Amino acid sequence: MTSSEQIQKHQLPSAIESLAKVEQLIDDLKVSFNIPEDQYGNILVSLSEAVNNAIKHGNQLDASKFIDLSFEFSDKAIVFSVKDQGQGFDYNKIPDPTHPDNIDKPDGRGIFIMKSLSDKVEFEENGSLVKIEFQR
C-alpha cells in the first residue's frame, strides 16, 4: 500500500435503516476525497444496491447479523467492499433483468445496476462479498 492509499472500514447492522448510514458515509467521502458529482451519484446508487442486497438476500433481514463495508481509495481507483454473513449465491445464474421474460419481475436489477454504474464488479467468497470499483 502506498502513501496515497487509504482504507476505511465500517460495520453496519443488518437493517434497512443502515441504508441511511451508507448515504451519510458516501456524503462524507465525497467531501473528503473530492469525488465528482456524477461519480458520487453512481457510487451512492451502487453501494445502496449492494448493501440492500446484503441485508435482504445475504443476511435475510436477520437483525443479529452485520454488514462489513470498506472503502479503499488510491490515486487510480476507489474500491468498495460489501460483505454479508449469508451463505452466498451463484452470481453467474442471475437472470438478465432486461430480457422480456424478466421485465415485470421486481427482483434481479441490483447487480445489473451496479455493473452498469461502476467500472468493475467482482464477487468473492461464494457471492457473500462484492467489490465495486470506480476509476479515478
How are the SSEs placed, and which strands pair?
Elements: E1 6-13, H1 18-32, H2 37-58, E2 66-73, E3 77-83, H3 110-117, E4 120-124, E5 129-135
Antiparallel strand pairs: 1-2, 2-3, 3-5, 4-5
Written overview of the protein:
The chain has 136 residues and is of the alpha+beta class. The model has no long low-confidence stretch (mean pLDDT 92). The longest helix is centred in the middle third of the chain and has 22 residues, at 37-58. It is globular and about 45 Å long. The relative contact order is 0.19. It contains three helices and five strands. Strand 4 and strand 5 (129-135) form a beta hairpin.
Structural class: alpha+beta
Overall pLDDT, averaged?
Answer: 92
Strand content: 25-35%
From the spread of the alpha carbons, the general shape counts as: globular
Short synopsis of the structure:
The protein is of the alpha+beta class and 136 residues long. Helices cover 33% and strands 26% of the residues.
